[in-house]
Design brief:
- It is a single chain.
- The protein is 38% helix and 23% strand.
- The chain is an alpha+beta fold.
- The protein folds into three domains: 115 residues, no CATH class; 33 residues; 179 residues, no CATH class.
- Strand 12 and strand 13 form a beta hairpin.
- The longest helix has 30 residues.
- The model has no long low-confidence stretch (mean pLDDT 92).
Length: 368
């Protein structure tokens, strides 16, 4: 999932401190190995952003336009499933013919499968996967082209062994401690935004609460929010939408196509105590600074982000513009999340906010 061109899908990762001065040597020491040694086990290591075979990592080759841009490469040999099935069937038929059998036991079929894999695997070309990372050398966070938990865990694990520190994915809990030090979202109790659902049936879900609150604030303020520095931000929330409440019955509801944000189904989800776990958001500072993306409230992962067009006249300039746009978007996201936490952790202010939220849910117009 590229970060340097096109729409971007990513997660942020927080570092506990700045990079060590010998970061270039550390990444080089964990460079990806030769493809000749790849087996059926995943082989993970770093390569430069130039191509997936470039393991010559140095501070110079790792830098692009003043940013560290490297790629976590995953290499593994696999026998294609269709080829494996055909070869296994061929062997099974030969064994049955030789032994005069009409069928084989599961144990025999398993042994044949294993022997076929061992025979074919050395001749299979390694399959390569790539997860890019980008960061400014003086920052304590990075962007990784990983959206699943498995991919994120792979990036975090390799960063930890490379840098000798403990990175953390920028989930709602980690970002809460970053933007409002001392805030422990794990201590928050579940609450209901619905006038029809009791608090006792709600589970804690700060990321979903944040997305739903953001929808409420944008909807009741004509799509305009004020950032901490006084700038006005346009916020638009659209489908597809995913609602979750882990209670009885169908607790995940996905609404797609048409205009689900104004649908009767969306209102029914909110009245049933469900909160947004995923939605498409658009942030706009002006006509030239617009970000559009799908946000996941549980992981704080982001898919298909379209960034503002830069003014760079060459590839390096365009890359720098993209990285600056990523940094600007991050500042906006943290600002909005901080505003939410200010209300969420203030008991008196939050009671007033929840009352307004419930009135908004009950009074939402809904069309069929």
């Amino acid at each position: 999932m590229a970060l340097d061109t096109g729409s971007a899908s990513f997660r942020m990762i927080e570092l506990p401190r700045k990079l060590p001065v010998d970061w270039g040597h550390r990444f080089a020491a964990r460079a990806a190995g030769a493809l000749e040694g790849v087996t059926d086990e995943e082989s993970v290591g770093w390569v430069t952003s130039r191509h997936l075979l470039d393991v010559a990592i140095s501070e110079e080759s790792a830098m692009v336009g003043g940013y560290i841009h490297l790629v976590l490469r995953i290499a593994q040999r696999k026998v294609p499933a269709t080829l494996l099935r055909a070869e296994c069937k061929l062997e099974e038929l030969a064994v049955m013919a030789a032994d005069g059998k009409h069928f084989l036991k599961a144990k025999d079929r398993a042994e044949i499968r294993q022997s076929v894999v061992e025979r074919l695997l050395p001749n299979m070309p390694p399959q390569l996967k790539a997860i890019p990372i980008v960061m400014a050398p003086d920052e304590t966070y990075l962007f990784a082209g990983a959206t699943s938990e498995k991919q994120t865990d792979q990036v975090v694990a390799l960063l930890a062994s490379t840098l000798g520190m403990a990175p953390e994915p920028s989930d709602p809990g980690v970002l809460a401690a970053l933007v409002r030090p001392g805030t422990e979202v794990e201590d928050l109790v579940g609450l209901s935004f619905s006038p029809e659902m009791p608090e006792a049936e709600m589970e804690p879900a700060p990321g979903r609460e944040f997305l739903t609150w953001l929808w409420f604030v944008a909807d009741t303020h004509n799509g305009s929010l004020t950032l901490a520095d006084g700038r006005e931000l346009g916020v638009l929330l659209e489908g597809p939408l995913t609602f979750i409440n882990e209670g009885e019955g169908a607790y995940v509801t996905s609404l797609r196509k048409g205009m689900p944000e104004t649908s009767l189904e969306a209102k029914s989800c909110l009245l049933a105590g469900k909160k947004l776990s995923s939605a498409k958001l658009t942030f706009a500072l002006d006509d030239e600074h617009i970000w559009s993306f799908q946000a996941d409230g549980d992981l704080f992962s982001f898919r298909g982000m379209k960034l503002p067009k830069g003014e760079g006249a060459d590839p390096i300039g365009r890359f720098q513009d993209r990285m600056a746009a990523f940094a600007d978007w991050r500042a906006i996201w943290l600002d909005l999340y901080g505003q939410f936490l200010d209300r969420r952790t203030n008991a008196a202010a939050w009671r007033k906010e929840v009352k307004k939220l419930r009135e908004w849910v009950a009074g939402r117009p809904a069309r069929r």
